[in-house]
Amino acid sequence: MHSRKSAIQKLCPIWAPLILASFFALPASAQSFRVQCPTATTLHPAPPSGQTDPLSGDPLYNGPTALSPAPKFKPLNGAPPFSLPYAYVTNGGAIKCQEISGGDGFMTEADGNQTFLFGFGPLSGLGLIQNGLPGTQLAADFNQRYNAPFLDLAGTKPDPLFNPSFPVNINAGIAIPAEMMNIGVLNANIPAPLMAIDEDDEFFLTLTNVGMIMRPDLFEQHTVHFHGYPNASSFFDGVPDASVAINIGGSMTYYYLAPDAGTYFWHCHITPPEHLQMGMVGQLYVRPRQNRVANGTSLYTAFQWQQSDLRTSCFPSKDILCATPPPAVNTGFKQGDTVNSNTYTKYAYNDGDGSTRYDVELPLQIHGFDPNFHFVGMTFNPEGFSDMKDKYFLLNGRSYPDTVQTGPQATEDSDGIVRPSQPMPATLTLKSGQRALLRISDLDVTEYQTLASLGIPMQVIAVNARLLRDQAGNNLYYTTNSITLAGGESLDVILDTTGIAPGTYFLYTPQLDHLSNDAENFGGLMTEIVVQ
Amino acid sequence: MKALTMKTAKPNTRVLSVIWILLASLCGASAGHASVPGIQGTTFSLVASENYTTQPDGMAIYSWGYGCATTTGVTPLPFGSCASMQIPGPTLIVTEGQTVTVTLTNNLGAVAGNTSIVFPGFQVCLGAITSGVCGAPTPGNGVQGLLTQEAGPGQSVTYTFIATTPGTHAYYSGTQSDLQIEMGLYGALVVLPASPSTSCVKNANTGSSYTLAASAYDGNTPNTCYDREYLFQLAEMDPRIHQDALAQMHCSSTTSSTGCPTAINVAIEPYHARYFLINGRSMPDDMDANFAPNYPHQPYNGNPHMHPGDMVLLRIIGQGRYQHPLHEHGNHVRVLARDGNLMVSQTDPTSLAGPLLFTTTTTPGVAMDGIFYWSGRGLNWDIYGHTPGDGSTCIADANGYNTMPSPPQGAGVPSNYYEWCADHLKPLETMNGGPTTLPDSNIMTNGLWYAGSAYLGLDATTKAMGPTPLPPASSPQNPNAGYAFMWHSHNEREITTNDVFPGGMMMMMIVDAPVTVIDETL
Fold first, then answer.
1. What are the structural domain ranges in chain B?
2. Going by C-beta distance under 8 Å and a sequence separation of 6 or more, which residues neighbour residue A140?
């Protein structure tokens, strides 16, 4: 088991410098920042090798196989090594890691208002996050040495821990406690760092609570709730009442075997009406096994492979909650098939028929901010909940027209450092004839919100991370011009631009009072889809 | 919780959270487990009257509710009683095809005016139903209202209908509904299938589970078998309306300088909901027992318990004016039916077609049935913390679960009924050979429902490798060390009670270890 410890694990547990304690004037000196990203586990004894899927970095999927040689579990507590009394089945996948901070910071509303947040920020994959990409990485990439010359985007604030004798790497996981504080304090993003994993991955997600420097009176814990994880353990479910919550100065690594493919999302579960309103909301999706099938393989055949492992199978007569029943019709769709001169290797779900194929994807999170609540949240006053009234309506943390700005949107924080507070654009460009997958989630805490499409029909293929398919295998997709979601819901929409003339098309809310940015009678929940 | 008075409009939530922790530890002893209590029969005598309901902030709220004028001819099912006034109203349990007669007496008081009940989805007859045919209205049976026949003050009205559609249904006032439903005049009607499935195999559970029927709907297919069931009625409340109603209903020249109304006229807008209710109670009151004596007019709780692998039928009704996104932590819900209409495949009527949802939107006037279960399948670690040589076994059935009624466990090894066998013995913690090291408990804050380890069951708390796990049974809210999952409105401002968090539309669902006895009568 010693061999499984990563370089980062070997450093641990690391006791944060005393400066941290004095910084927050903590009553107890119990700080422990600790990151876990093992390079090997029993399920994934070696990193992916040979031909891999370009999107996930995972090995290709050929159906379930018994892990060979049969693994030996080697306890560190002195117990003798042991094997399981049955074949240990693998479906591929890899170890994926990500690291985030929980703290506070500022964002900029579309009307210029600088707004205080409780939020999560990246402590790994900083370069990926700034480019609007998922910050999730293979262990080998995560376990590199973080080394950045500057603390800020503009390159004006030198990072005191920069070591020029090592290569610059802004995507590695940060393992040094001082650097976690340098980067993590005031690092809140809205939405929180994007996560993307693949079925069969083991996901090690480390949350470090860096404290809220703008609210030194608070001793808030934070957690991660992986919303929608089926058959969750309550320990890793992130509900502080049912599990443990991370104090300031501490880290916790959440461990998940990736669940069935779908658009999920995540958020803090401490005092949800407060922490969610204040911005601790993020996006998370699981990509299907079907993406990893070799070129030319029938998707229907690959679906049957999944049916031979009880964990990945779906027989509706046996399991009323199983995720995706076999398709009623074998369409003969094969990996890499070309439709309208577009080649398809990416799907939203394990459809077995190619019907959820897409060319480009856009994770889109709906949220709402009540500026009064955020203003009060920056001071020392208690907050009212039932009076909450959102006046900013956000797509990926931005309101129109900021939604269509490309690149990260930055905010100067109270320490003078400009940080990418809203890294994710909410806009998309695609060629006529292509299919866009919108992974839409909503974490508004006060009301339902509607998003409509002008010009391009919306085909709803899934709700709440589950393909719309009846138990007999018929796809129940429906076409509409608008979708309505409450906080705590998600759905997947395909925008098929076949026959759509080039131009700019709008996604906007027909809830007309949501087309505003506080006092500005313009903006709100709106963005653009550009068809070329 | 009644003794507690929190009258501050916007109290400091952090101070209150401390108070809450203290109080929650006091009310653990009366924590109960739910089922679907109601009254069974074909002839019901209900009365609409006024009384006070209570909230966990100590407020007594003037309310109107349905209750039993008499319990003659009805049977409490599976247990319990029927109050003279309760919110929600008595759950009426009938069987598909029966002719059901409901007589409502209006005891609200003259100022309240008329009242009534509507039964959406059923053909209500105002006379006698003979051989399935509705006869002429009985002379003097109520007075004509807009939506239905009404009972004037002190008067009665009788509704008769055939329970044509199985499943869960709502009933509520059809008179001045904007006020009367807000005041509490709503309830549930459960229609049991006439021909439930004969092929259901119930889980071998410890403790009784009082299912009202073997299956939610008729026939063996599609499969709607279940092991437990719970009914949640969601509604919100604006206490200002209730205060205004009280002032008008009990007005006298000494309390009002502007004169007393002869007919109630309360402004419904602006509407400002401050209480968010599950079965008439706010969290944490909703997790106290059914028929707990401290809530004489809110007898039904919201406190779901289950064992791994139990098929749990959820009957959920929106009874207020808002939609509420009810998020079920732990797994998806298969929606079976909407307002008693089973959703089946258009090509195969033996296959279900309702969606799988992790958030079941609750819409005013809409009732849904769904199936939930939790098994812990696919976590890649053994939820019981089994280790080699501890005497545990896991013998997979065709679905991969250990469903042997009496598995050949070693002496003293608690049952692992419905364990997902592919993960049996797989360690979680690095110390045991697993993938991850659990956090130092010195830098964590423990929840009230956290039993001290990542594992399920009382004996598992001794298996934690962390430096300082809680001693066994040290969680007052979860003494049997089940897995707790929050079921709550994801419009998160609704998990508050008059601005205080936690509260409102929230309950802790607990997956108890197989050895834990779940007593649904509590």
1. 376-479
2. A39, A47
- Concatenated DSSP letters of B16-46: HHHHHHHHHHHGGGGB------EEE-SEEEE
pLDDT for residue A319: 96
The neighbour count for residue A154, using CB atoms within 10 Å, is 10
Residue B402, chain A, CB below 8 Å: the answer is: no
Q: Is B162 on the interface with A (CB under 8 A)?
A: no
- Cβ neighbours, 10 Å, residue B3: 8
**Predicted-complex ipTM score:** 0.93
Specify the pLDDT at position B320: 94
Phi-psi region of A256 (alpha: psi -120 to 50; beta: other; left: phi over 0): beta
B403 touches chain A (CB under 8 A): no
On chain A, the residues whose CB falls within 8 A of the CB of B491 are 444-447, 486-488
Q: What is the pLDDT of residues A96-140, one digit of tens each?
A: 999 999 999 999 999 999 999 999 999 999 999 999 999 999 999
CA distance A95 to B299: 50
- What pLDDT is attached to residue A9? 37
Spatial CA neighbour of A118 closest among A179, A180, A190: A190
Amino acid at A222: H
Q: A328 and B347 in contact by Cβ < 8 A?
A: yes
Coil, strand or helix at B358: coil
The answer to whether the Cβ–Cβ distance between A471 and B352 falls below 8 Å is: yes
What pLDDT digit, counting tens, does each position of B173-226 carry? 999 999 999 999 999 999 999 999 999 998 887 777 789 999 999 999 999 999
Local confidence band at B28 (pLDDT 50, 70, 90 cut-offs): very low
φ/ψ region of A249 (left if φ > 0, alpha if ψ in -120 to 50, else beta) reads left
B440 min Cα distance to partner chain A (Å): 8
Distance of CA B393 to the CA centre of its chain: 35
Q: Is residue B11 pLDDT above 50, yes or no? A: no
**List of chain A residues whose C-beta atoms are within 8 Å of the C-beta of residue B223:** 317, 320
DSSP element (H, E) containing A142: helix A139-142
- Which of A227, A321, A445 lies at the smallest CB-CB distance from B491? A445
The tens digit of pLDDT for each residue in B382-406 reads 999 999 999 999 999 999 999 987 6
Reported residue count of chain B is 522
- B485 vs A38, A76, A234: nearest CB: A234
What pLDDT is recorded for position B466?
Answer: 64
Phi-psi label, residue A48: left if phi above 0, alpha if psi -120 to 50, beta otherwise: beta
Which amino acid, residue B56? P
Whether A255 sits inside 8 A of B493 (CB atoms) is no
Secondary structure E strands in B258-358: 275-278, 305-306, 312-318, 324-328, 333-338, 341-342, 356-357
B504 bridge partner residues: B283
The tens digit of pLDDT for each residue in B447-468 reads 999 988 899 998 887 787 666 6
What share of chain B has pLDDT > 70, as a percent?
A: 91
Contacts of A464 in chain B (CB under 8 A): 332, 355-359
User: What's the confidence (pLDDT) of residue A41?
Assistant: 96
Closest CA to B85 of B236, B187, B225: B187
Note the pLDDT of residue B256: 66
Residue type at position B388: P
Check: CB of residue B467 under 8 Å from CB of residue A264: no
SS3 content of chain B, % helix, strand, coil (to 5): 10, 30, 60
Nearest residue of chain B to residue A246 (CA atoms): B444
Low-confidence stretches of chain A (pLDDT < 70) are 1-31, 381-382
CA–CA dist B45, B67 (Å, integer): 8
- In chain B, residues with a C-beta closer than 8 Å to the C-beta of A463 are 355, 357
B294 lies within 8 A of chain A by CB: no
